[in-house]
Amino acid sequence: MKHPTPDTNKRRLLQLAGWTTLATSAALLGCGKKEEAPVAAAPAAAPAASAPAPKPAPLKIAFAYVGPVGDGGWTFAHDNGRKAIEKEFGDKVVTSFVENVPEAADAERVFRDLVGQGNTLVFGTTFGYMEPMLKVAADSPNVKFEHATGYKQAPNMRTYDSRTYEGAYMAGVIAGAMTKSNTLGVVGSIPIPEVIRNINSFTLGAQSVNPKIKTKVVWVNEWFNPPKETEAAQSLINQGADVLFQNTDSSAVLQTAAKNKKLAFGWDSDMTAYAPEAHLASAIINWAPYYIQATRDALEGKWTGGGGVWWGVKEGAIDLVSVSDKVPADIKAKVDTIKAGLKDGSFSIWEGPLVGQDGKEVLAKDAVADDKFLGGVKFYVKGVDSKVPAQ
């Protein structure tokens, strides 16, 4: 057996040491690779959700009313139009109103206050607000002003009106058929062309079915004054009128007719409930179509000043509603035919030959009055048995 020599042992020790060193280096090298491995990147943060665009501030709209919202007539009709805006546009608008604003210098203060509250669309709902609105409009170029029944405009003020004479004419047709005394009575408010035109139209409607009628008029020189309206209505009844009409804002005329067992009409709003036994029909104004259109124009940046509109049956602004069962069927049918003709333009109320109270011709045969003519009516037609007040 061959034994290892010292040299052999030495070589083995050196060899073993080499393997050990190699193994250690390999281990260290492996450890170095682990330490140098790239650290996994943190996941990218999700992009922040974009904040919703701020909601536009609502359009602030204000109304100035000449009477109380509970008058049952003119102001009540305007307030129904305001409510229609709220229903149509929801939280895109905020509306408010001031009632019983007089047609005087105080109206200017009210309009300035409405502007100061941040309203940028302001409606003035009676003729007497025209001059005060013009003054405030001149000082408030960024506010849009709408004036009912006026004729003066500005770059930021326009006018709107309803053809109330169409409702008056249709009521006249019924009155002419229902009167037994052939005397009709009208309670007038302010003797401006609008009201004189309505009295004439009522008379023309009555004459279309009963040429014998005459119309008496008593003026109260106010839009809303129930005691004065009551007194005027009683005066007309005392003069022989058995069917009453009005161009005032309350239900007093209709109620006075009922107390005297006479007949009458509602005006501006449906007044049936105030005296159903006397009520023949109501000539109403629906302001909603115009108020909604004006508001939409303002919201969409399409509103323009300096002009005016005059809407009637055709546009859904005027109607005769709640016609009583006391009215004969043939008269109801006649009213329906007239209404259809006004809607499609085939019927004209103011068409010649037409003569004034003094017997002089005011419209030649086949001539149809234009809006300029109608806007300047300051005379009574033949058949009105009263004098036009001095203006």
Low-confidence stretches: 1-40
CATH topology of the largest domain: Rossmann fold
Class by SSE composition:
alpha/beta
Helical proportion, percent range: 25-40%
Give the topology string: H per helix, E per strand. Answer: HEHEHEHEEHEHEHEHEEHEEHEEH
Distance between the termini: 156 Å
How would a textbook summarize the main sheet? 6 strands, parallel
Mean pLDDT across all residues, rounded? 90
Percent strand: 15-25%
Radius of gyration: 41 Å
CATH superfamily of the largest domain, please? Response regulator
Question: Can you tell me about this structure?
Answer:
The chain has eleven helices and 14 strands. The protein is of the alpha/beta class. It has two domains: 59-162 and 288-312, Response regulator (Rossmann fold), CATH 3.40.50.2300; 164-286 and 314-375, Response regulator (Rossmann fold, 3-Layer(aba) Sandwich), CATH 3.40.50. The strands form three sheets. It has a six-stranded parallel beta sheet with strand order 2-1-3-4-5-11, sandwiched between helices. The chain has a six-stranded mixed beta sheet with strand order 7-6-8-9-10-12, sandwiched between helices. It has a two-stranded antiparallel sheet with strand order 13-14. Helix 8 (252-259) links the parallel strand 8 and strand 9. The N and C termini lie far apart (156 Å). The model is unreliable at 1-40 (pLDDT under 50).
